[in-house]
């Protein structure tokens, strides 16, 4: 009976953890590694375990850094079930197929260059057909239902408040007369976030795996965030520029649309054209519309009030690339929500090319930016960026609005952990090293709880009393 940390160990992406009990093997998440080109090349490395011997996957949520290697798992021989919430399954159907499309497109472009150099062509990481095939293995679980998925292991999902269908995973393990309970936080939501409910409090565990994305910082208050956006909209309107919002297609795009609808009059948005420039975000928004039973009361009330009229009368949905290109003819009055969320690909790069050099335009960063991405360079104050071999000066003002984050900040992570009785041992995952160290110090100071920062590949025995390795960093 043990757990092995295979991904998102001292880094944010590539979430993957292997649990073994009674000879059965279960994966928690199987996510794509994102970041620099060198980081992403690791996705092509063989799994460090035999996929044919994996009995089941339990998936916390649909974001690609948690789900994106599932088609690879199937290609390598995994044939078992994938348990997740129904809304997560519906979002994965969109996201994994889109990832397959991007893989095919990237391989096509790369092979054109390789052909000219006389190099051997590469295969896509996986294809749209691979992604579609993997969906046949998904099995949905509602929040709150306890289910034995293999001998010796029972699971229960609870709302993590991160995106639609995101889950905290409770696991009960039994072997040789011993019982252990592990709680995997998945990605915990920011309290009071638009649309989804706050994360569920859990009170018992023998070991907690907790994310630490924002373990070293606090978000601005909601009130200060709304005022910041209101001021920003007014400033750009007076300057006659555009607002660019790189947004993750699932979760963040829907949150932004909700806020624009909620504060439509207060922010004087009738003077703007609003574009959702992402086919995947449009599809994901339709999934959100089918799962209103998961909304918090405020979002449900707004949805019901606008049931017979559009939430945003000036919203344009850009599905075709020709529609996206047309947006770039607008010199002012456009709010452009486009992927990708870290500016590492997608249509936002085209909008940056047409707007980043204009001082009257503003770029609004609303999510975590992994090291090595274009979005992280903008957050870090890059004065020049490279787009398709061209150097573009950054004259637009860049805003980082942490209050729109879908991740809990340090105080909220501490609060979530505080609900556990007897202060169970902690393993911090899904965070950059400095953020983990800061949260580790705070946990020790406030709760006298030493938290472990597992390294990739590290294995932890769960038999007897769980003893985490002695560690100060």
Features:
473 residues; alpha/beta; Metallo-beta-lactamase, Chain A; Rossmann fold; 2 domains; seven-stranded mixed β-sheet; 22 strands; 32% helix; 21% strand
Describe the protein.
The chain has 473 residues and is an alpha/beta fold. The protein folds into two domains: 272 residues, Ribonuclease Z/Hydroxyacylglutathione hydrolase-like (Metallo-beta-lactamase, Chain A), CATH 3.60.15.10; 183 residues, Rossmann fold (3-Layer(aba) Sandwich). Helices cover 32% and strands 21% of the residues. It has 14 helices and 22 strands. A seven-stranded mixed beta sheet has the order 6-5-4-3-2-1-22. Helix 4 packs antiparallel against helix 5. It starts with a strand and ends in a 12-residue tail after the last strand.
Topology:
Elements: E1 2-7, E2 16-21, E3 24-28, H1 37-41, E4 56-58, H2 64-67, H3 70-75, E5 82-84, H4 86-117, H5 128-134, E6 138-140, E7 146-150, E8 153-159, E9 167-175, E10 178-184, E11 207-211, H6 222-239, E12 243-246, H7 252-262, E13 273-277, H8 279-290, H9 297-305, E14 315-317, H10 321-327, E15 334-338, H11 348-355, E16 362-365, H12 374-379, E17 384-387, E18 390-393, E19 397-400, H13 410-418, E20 426-429, H14 433-447, E21 451-452, E22 459-461
Parallel strand pairs: 3-4, 4-5, 5-6, 10-11, 11-20, 12-15, 12-16, 13-14, 13-15, 16-19, 20-21
Antiparallel strand pairs: 1-2, 1-22, 2-3, 7-8, 8-9, 9-10, 17-18
Helix pairs in contact: 4-5, 4-8
What gross morphology would you assign?
globular
Mean of all residue-level pLDDT scores: 94
* Number of contiguous helices: 14
Strand content of the residues, in percent?
15-25%
Structural class: alpha/beta
What helical percentage do the residues reach? 25-40%
| Second CATH tier, the architecture of the largest domain | 4-Layer Sandwich
Under CATH, the topology of the largest domain can be stated as: Metallo-beta-lactamase, Chain A
Say how many strands there are.
22
CATH superfamily of the largest domain: Ribonuclease Z/Hydroxyacylglutathione hydrolase-like
Cα-atom radius of gyration:
22 Å
The unreliable regions are none
Strand order of the largest sheet: 6-5-4-3-2-1-22
Question: What is the CA–CA distance across the termini?
Answer: 26 Å
Domain count: 2
Instruction: Give the biggest sheet.
Output: 7 strands, mixed
Q: What is the CATH class name of the largest domain?
A: Alpha Beta
């Amino acid at each position: 009976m043990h757990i092995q940390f295979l991904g998102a160990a001292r880094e944010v992406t590539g979430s993957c953890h292997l649990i073994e009990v009674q000879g059965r093997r279960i994966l928690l998440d199987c996510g794509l590694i994102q970041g620099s080109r060198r980081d992403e090349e690791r996705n092509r490395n063989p799994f460090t375990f035999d996929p044919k011997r994996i009995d089941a996957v339990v998936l916390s949520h649909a974001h690609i850094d948690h789900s994106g290697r599932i088609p690879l798992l199937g290609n390598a021989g995994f044939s078992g079930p994938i348990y997740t919430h129904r809304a997560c399954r519906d979002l994965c159907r969109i996201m994994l197929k889109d990832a397959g499309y991007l893989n095919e497109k990237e391989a096509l472009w790369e092979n054109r260059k390789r052909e000219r150099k006389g190099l051997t062509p590469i295969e896509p990481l996986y294809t749209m057909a691979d992604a579609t095939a993997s969906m046949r293995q998904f099995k949905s679980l509602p929040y709150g239902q306890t289910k034995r998925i293999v001998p010796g292991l029972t699971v229960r999902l609870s709302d993590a408040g991160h995106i639609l269908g995101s889950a905290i995973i409770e696991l009960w393990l039994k072997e040789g007369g011993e019982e252990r309970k592990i709680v995997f936080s998945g990605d915990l939501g920011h309290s009071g976030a638009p649309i989804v409910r706050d994360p569920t409090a859990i009170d018992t565990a023998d070991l907690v795996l907790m994310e630490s994305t924002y373990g070293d910082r606090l978000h601005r208050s909601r009130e200060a965030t709304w005022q910041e956006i209101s001021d920003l909209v007014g400033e750009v309107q007076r300057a006659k520029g555009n607002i660019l919002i790189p947004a993750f297609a699932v979760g963040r795009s829907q949150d932004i649309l909700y806020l624009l609808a909620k504060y439509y009059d207060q922010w004087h948005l009738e003077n703007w054209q609003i574009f959702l420039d992402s086919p995947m975000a449009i599809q994901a928004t339709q999934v959100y519309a089918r799962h209103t039973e998961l909304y918090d009361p405020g979002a449900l009330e707004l949805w019901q009030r606008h049931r017979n009229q559009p939430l945003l009368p000036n919203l344009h949905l850009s599905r075709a690339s020709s529609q996206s290109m047309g947006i770039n003819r607008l010199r002012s009055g456009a709010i452009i929500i486009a992927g990708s969320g870290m500016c590492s690909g997608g249509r936002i790069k085209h909008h940056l090319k047409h707007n980043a050099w204009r001082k009257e335009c503003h770029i609004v960063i609303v999510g975590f930016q992994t090291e090595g991405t274009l979005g992280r360079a903008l957050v870090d104050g890059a004065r020049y960026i490279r787009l398709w071999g061209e150097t573009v000066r950054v004259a637009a003002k860049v805003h980082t609005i942490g209050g729109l984050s879908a991740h809990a900040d340090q105080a909220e992570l501490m609060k979530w952990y505080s609900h556990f009785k007897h202060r169970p041992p902690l393993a911090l995952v899904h965070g950059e090293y400095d953020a983990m160290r800061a949260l580790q110090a705070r946990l020790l100071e406030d709760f006298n709880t030493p938290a472990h920062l597992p390294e990739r590949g590290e294995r932890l025995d769960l038999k007897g009393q769980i003893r985490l390795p002695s560690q100060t960093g």
